[in-house]
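S., here's the first fold you wanted:
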Amino acid sequence: MKTVYFDSAATTAIDAEVREAMIDAIDSYGNPSSTHNIGRKSKIIIERVRKNIATELNCLPGEIFFTSGGTEADNIAIQCAVRDLGVTRIISSPIEHHAVGHTAEFLRDNNHVELVYLNVDEFGQVDLQQLEVLLEEDKPTLVSLMHANNELGNILDIYKVGELCRANNAWFHSDTVQTVGHQKIDLEKLPVDFIACAAHKIHGPKGSGFVYVRSSVKIHSMIMGGGQERSMRAGTENIIGIAGLGKSIELAYKNLEQDKAFILGLKKYAISRIEKDFPFISFNGLSKDTEKSLFTVLNLRLPKNDQTDLILFSLDMKGIGVSGGSACNSGSSKGSHVIEAINKKNENLVSLRLSFSKYNTKEDLDYFFDCLTEILEPAMAKA
């Protein structure tokens, strides 16, 4: 049976060069905190990756702190902003990743932090006029809005959000897990205080990422223990994972324009096939708009019926891996909170997210559409 993977927004296949970099790092077994030569060899790997990431993102190496991934990075930014910066209000949106949403709700329920969700319209666009009004209130505030939505693909103008925050003395955190390596990010120009990255979203390993903390923002370690990461993140560093992270970011930006053109071509082909052969399927959010959404994500809206109810299972039986929403929820079968937030008319619908990578092909899409036609044939015959 043919295998097709259209779930790269959840996680990506590891690049061969990334795998090689990780294998090479295995031999550096010394503890990077040790002062002897064997330990220093491991430390050199870590600091070289830190410097290279800083160069790609135009920031200081000392502003990059390695983590276990995007979820930990988001938690550090949000929790430490409340604990160390005196934040008493968090402004976010109802369509954030759970790494942000659940963390903010925990702080609301346990630390008496005010949590305000901005309105979103039927396309998943955040109400920035509401944000501007809220920021005029004199409260120590952290704004946490993702750069690109992992389900819809919507891209937020984080430069505009950042300028609003700066003008009103608010801190700004953005979950950039879906955009690091997929978009050019200049942290010298971007008015943001925290961003997050996960290597496994850009053909790197799981369990490795970083949080960026602007040098003027003074927070302390969320995890207690040793003095690793300049006392910002206790625990012996994951040298192998960091090596893979570094190589994945290097390759992502080295090949960005080439990969983007190829993947965008696949997305445009998918859109044309859907509009031609499946007129009853529409698009969620701004995912059809190639200027306002990630080139890697396309979210479909299908009418609910006997066939679409089991669409993920039916496609899986044919070797096709797709998602009905976020897969970062431990296999939960709950409906997508993102789709729920934008479903203003309370329509009975099923969502299907296709997320592409450089390893997909036009033939993969043709196979997907052949299978989709076969699965939906009873419903199409009735239409």
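And the second, which I think is the more interesting of the pair:
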Amino acid sequence: MVLGEAFHRRAAKLLSERLTTLEKHAALLFDPANIRYVTGLRFLPTDRPLAACVWADGSAALFVPQMEAEHLASGWVTDVRWYAEYPADEPPVRWMAREAGGPLVVDTAVSAQDWKHIAEEVEEVELLDPVAEQRVVKSPAEIALIERAAGYADMALERAFARLATGSTEQDVLAEIVSVVDGIMRQDLGDDYDLPGPAITGSVQSGTRTTMPNAPTSNRSLTRGDCVVVEFTANVAGYHAQAGCTFFVGDPLRDVVRWVESSMIAQNAALEAMTAGATAESVDLAARRALERLGLGTNIRHRTGHGIGLSPIEAPYLTRSQATALTPGMVLVDRPGVYIPGRIGARNARTVVIEADGPRVLNPRIDRWDKMESRLKEF
């Protein structure tokens, strides 16, 4: 169910209307997610700059390297303009800026060096991301893709739990699950499989390594009594969903159980706060206050969650000083954590859509982990 031409034309029309409101002539887009949202174009970013341009009159063009012009001219944007080579005597973004004209808006994915070149070519230019703002609220078709991705993320999580075993390394578990689930997705999805893949990515952390939220998956072997944090992000037709859980390899200590239960309480508090009209900050505060009541207010290392869609991490961000009001159609990852230095980290993740009558969890099978005993892998 790749989104059709009408969707992307509408996205470009909304952008052109916003440009008129901003009194801007054009928008120059460098973020691959923004380009895909407006044009439908799927491409592999390289060292050669590629951009989409949308003008306030509703027209659009692609600015691309000559070597890629033919295969990129396949969507609704038929105006494909190319530059000869890179590097060249003149940076291609200077040519792009002249083609776009000003007053100009440039999205925030532009590099500092390219921004400098653009600012030297166009007298009036502003760094702004109106397309990222459009992407915050998803259409029913986008939500359907995210919900489908959530099913695959859940599948990976279930298979990872079944694969946990003493003596296996974190990398053993992750590599096997990614390979198997990616193969299933490749067979299932057809045109919705997002080449070049893999369509599923993840992380496995065990033992004291769970206290480091973004530590890479390692060759550490799982041992009896370990706490294991497993997370997966699946991608269907460019749209992402996440699932994550904290598991036990063998019987855990009582304190460990309490800490993991605390992370679940914080996650549920965040979910309850995800009502239309609430602010992103208030959701974060709900999770933090839940942990503070449990005496764990100093054991928080990151925000409660974030938006998800064409990018695995995008606005809105569930953290302090974020006054963004939650709106039906927003899709969020509910992902607070508890971190006990030198002992364990506990984190769970689920993908949630905001609806008029309350939040709805998109993961079809994530509730199987609601009871602590379901998270215990016995031997």
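Why I say that: Residues 140-377 form a domain with the Creatine Amidinohydrolase fold (CATH 3.90.230.10). The longest strand covers residues 226-236.

Talk tomorrow,
H.
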